[in-house]
Amino acid sequence: MTKNETSPETMSIFSPALSARFDKLVGKYPLRRSALVPMLLYAQDEVGYISDAVVAEVAARIGITELDVRSVASYYSMLRFKPAGKFNVQVCTNIACMLRGGYEIFDTFSEKLGIGHKGVTADGVFSLEEVECIGACCWAPAIQVNYNFHDELKPENVDGILAEYRAKTPEGGR
Amino acid sequence: MNLEELNQIADAVRAENGKYDYAVNVCQGTGCLAQHADQIQAAIGASAAAAGKNVQVRRVGCLGFCAAGPLAQLEPEGHLLKGLSVARADEVVSSLGGSPPPGLQCELSELVEKQVQVVLENSGKIDPEKIDEYIERDGYQGLVKALTELRPVDVVQQITESGLRGRGGGGYPTGLKWGMVAKAAPGQKYVICNGDEGDPGAFMDRSVLESDPQRVIEGMAIAAYAVGASKGYIYVRAEYPLAVSRLTSGLREARRRGFLGNNICGTPFDFDIEIRIGAGAFVCGEETALIASIEGLRGVPRVRPPYPASAGLWGKPTLINNVETFANVPPILRKGGAWFAKVGTAKSKGTKVFALSGKIRNTALIEVPMGITLREIVEGIGGGVPEGHSFKAVQTGGPSGGCIPAELMDIEVSYESLIQAGSMMGSGGMIVMDDSSCMVNVAKFFMEFCMTESCGKCIPCRAGTVQMFELLAKICEGRATMDDLDLLIDLCSTVKEASLCGLGQTAPNPVLSTLRYFKQEYIEHIQNKRCPAGVCTIKHEEVPA
Hints:
Chain A is of the alpha+beta class and 174 residues long.
């Protein structure tokens, strides 16, 4: 997942497919830097986080400074400067979830995983985040694991959800 | 493409649907999908095949009654089934043509009676990824009519006549906005659809994009024709992966049918749309911040004027409307502005979609006529608060809005009356609170949200929200004095008057409205060190030895 070395064939840390996508993207808008936020999102999907190497290459491709890239990237809460777990558990604690026990869900995950907000488990399998409204208010309290939703949760559902994802890891498949 | 060709497509869809004796429409919105609606659909399909019944099993968008999911609607009878599971697929299939299996039928009367569906007219009725099913329900007739029968100025006139106002919360007259962009100097112009829905408790835009994406695409194309734009952007949150994927396939389908691209419907009109994904910043819902984000900058607002209508994306005239606003456009063009204006109050026309959540029996996505009372929504459609509790307040307008108390439940839903009550329409979140909710804690929650989401550009908002949050935390913990309360009220007016954008200007609203209606709860926390709802943890000051 964490790939930060330049490959000799493409002279890029990104896969040939992503490199080609970026080439198209920077030429698309009246200003090259308008491609910045989508590039960072796609880069994060491939590399896992916004590493120093990602910052350097994105800056070079657009023709702006690394500082400028960092300044924009640090503004957006979904862009990470550290690797997340293989499964990133995002617990909504916004009002509709809060009224229906969102904090209990967060605390249960925190206790079971032994990590807090923005923490990553030692084996790198899970990370935990407290997030703002994910638009699942009618099914509160809700969480999002990577791009999957789980809703109408109770603290006793937490073990099952963790087991479900753990089973998807090579170690968990035993 | 002309009206005749649209009718041919519609006839083909009807012919296909007519081949079946029954249809089972399985809801595949985010909520039902999280409870494995896709597997349920597959199980019903397999069961129908095994039973040798002639059943069309379809994927549809949100059926609205989210609390009871996973949902499905049966045709031709129209029964709505709730709480479905893979295990009960066989029962559902064998019941077709008779009465639904025990325990699965939804009681619909109150939920449906008071609703009027314009924006959600196709939601739960069509497969969101099949453009032909949208066409079968009169989709794209509005665009074809606009392009072949009306001049751009006539389109703007229809919107003005409809009385439609911005559904993102501000309520600015849509026709006026369109007219301004249309009158801007010719040249490159843009249309932006604001789908950066982030208000706590609001997910109307998500549902519209997931259930009926073509409606938004058609609305944007009509707008582009009216204002003279050739390029559009839909800005959607990355937190809405299903909406993004349905829009992506929706755009592809619209291009295939010739509603996007060059020479649309054989006219000189060219228009195409690109999706831009937000990276998690609430302020990007503010129009100038959203534009900055597309341009590749930190998504912070700037001073207006100039408004985007004259200098927007890359400095060009830009029309920016909310998802729900665009979703209202196709039927207005199809049926006329006067038709739309028949529903609603004197100044608030049409319908509004609300996401009903919190301490309420029927959490649901609903669409109601403007002018309906809050009581009809909360007690009628929502079925009131859970057993054993009493209704206390309803919060609208997200962090910019306020809490409306039980005694004002008979006010009508309109832009003006909600502002008068100290709240606002907002984008459509409606969060119900009962006697187990502490209003000071709710105010603290919203302030924390504004503090976290403040972009930091202007001092009143950046520093003011932090100070107000700390004062509210102090009150909740029973450590505050009456002087702190005065300071809080003072800060409210400073932040309101001096902030740069809507976020800061409205951040004090949840405090002001709870102070207006629930001041006694604040005083209880301060003077008697007690939280009447039993939510806050009072910290007793340690007496020095």
